[in-house]
Specification:
By secondary structure, this protein is of the alpha+beta class. It is 24% helix and 33% strand. β11 and β12 form a beta hairpin. The protein is globular and about 45 Å long. The termini are far apart. It binds 2-oxoglutaric acid (AKG) and fe (ii) ion (FE2). The site of 2-oxoglutaric acid has 10 residues, from β5, β9 and β10.
Length: 206
């Protein structure tokens, strides 16, 4: 028996409304960095960053045993169309993280993936495991886990949030446009910084 190298987590901020905005910005088969998307549509980028802060960041902090940095340019919004898709072959995400090899990917889907649209499948021993990930959920996996795009057709919009431990001394990560969750007594706030300058985000209107 192998333990599964991934975890499925709820991510309620991946809403149909936001999906529609992404579908309007990208062509089927297209992609865009999450950082660029946040510049283009701050109104929609901010709720997604807060969604990460509320639903996902603590998993990274627990795993790392310290605060996490989420790199906005290290994530990509992807629109897989039924006809046009960009299938990633077997790989690991280790090269994204550099440094000491610690890191974490949260792959978020806006569509039901794994059966009617391409999800992400994993190598588990000598088997391929293709988890079903409902719309509004995330797959969490580590930097050394082999995975690829599932080669089935169907519409799917997804985005990744990639994190490293805050103490990881890699200039590229330290200087990248990044989100960090500040845990305060009664909640959390989100700090966005780039090149050492920090700005705190106001939570989106409920
Ligand atoms: O979205 C995909 O099909 C590929 C995703 C992937 O490899 C990743 O998020 O690391
Ligand atoms: Fe990947």
């Amino acid at each position: 028996m192998h333990t599964m190298p991934f975890t499925v987590l709820p991510f309620p901020s991946a809403t149909p409304d936001i999906r529609q905005v992404v579908a309007g910005l990208l062509q089927p088969g297209g992609k865009m960095s999450f950082a660029r998307f946040c510049h283009a549509r701050r109104d929609v980028g901010i709720p997604l960053i807060f969604g990460y802060a509320q639903a996902l960041a603590h998993h990274a902090e627990t795993l790392f045993g310290e605060p996490a940095i989420m790199g906005l340019p290290a994530g990509t919004l992807r629109y897989h169309g039924s006809e046009q898709a960009d299938f990633a072959p077997w790989h690991t995400d280790a090269w994204f993280f550099r440094g000491d090899g610690r890191g974490l990917t949260f792959w978020v889907t806006f569509d039901d993936a794994g059966e009617t649209a391409p999800g992400v499948e994993f190598q588990v021993g000598d088997r391929t495991v293709s988890p079903r990930v409902p719309a509004g959920h995330a797959l969490m996996f580590g930097p050394h886990v082999r995975h690829r795009t599932q080669t089935i057709h169907g519409d799917r919009i997804s985005v990744e949030f990639r994190c490293v431990p805050a103490s990881m001394r890699v200039a590229e990560w330290q200087n990248m446009l990044q989100a960090r969750v500040d845990r305060t007594g009664d909640g959390c706030r989100v700090a966005i910084s780039a090149q050492g300058r920090t700005q705190y985000l106001d939570p989106p209107e409920a």
